[in-house]
Amino acid sequence: MTEILYPPEINTTGNVLEDYDPMNSKYLTVTGYNTALGRQTLLTSESIITCLTYHVNKAFRGQTYTYLFTVPPALHGQELYYVFYNEQSTDVFFRPINVTLAHIVQEYWINFALSGDPNGEGLPYFAKWGNNSSAQGLSLADVGPTDDPTDNDRCRWWQLSLYV
User: Fold this and answer.
1) Distance between CA 157 and CA 159 in Å, rounded?
2) Which residues contact 19 (CB under 8 A, 6 or more apart)?
3) d(C-alpha 77, C-alpha 137), whole Å
4) What is the spatial distance between Cα 15 and Cα 128, in angstroms, rounded to a whole number?
5) 40, 65, 44, 57: which is closest to 151 by C-alpha?
6) What share of residues in the chain are helix, strand, coil (percent, to 5)?
7) pLDDT tens digits for 84-124?
8) pLDDT per residue over 4-18, tens digit each?
9) Cα 85 from Cα 137, distance rounded (Å)
10) Which contacts of 96-101 are long-range, i.e. CB under 8 A and separated by 24 or more positions?
């Protein structure tokens, strides 16, 4: 695991933890690392949280909707401040909540709860995960399709359950 799946450094297609600037970052998608802390963070997040979404998407043969919530610091569960937005001004990290993004997230969730499809009038189109591993990117900079970073060799390895 420490030589092949999580070697001392992994080149990134997104950010590394050190890229996070609490005052200016519009999105944060950590896909690699160049420090021991980054290595441990990616290993932990993939083994416990993020790769599980890949497994669900594969189990349902891509007929799923998945999103990538990248509002910094982009921690698990942080999007709930947007899902349950009720005119509060900040999230748990005292960062201002983007009201437009909160309303989009709420509409996606409501539409999905009512019909099994997050799409609705006036919303950016939300594609199924499908055969191309598409996720809906939700950030302060943009809302739209993006590649799902969980479609990687590490998540495929976790799915094999060889560690059990």
Assistant:
1) 5
2) 25, 28
3) 15
4) 25
5) 57
6) 35, 10, 55
7) 999 999 988 888 999 999 999 999 999 999 999 999 999 99
8) 999 998 887 777 767
9) 19
10) 98/71, 98/140, 101/71, 101/138, 101/139, 101/140, 101/143
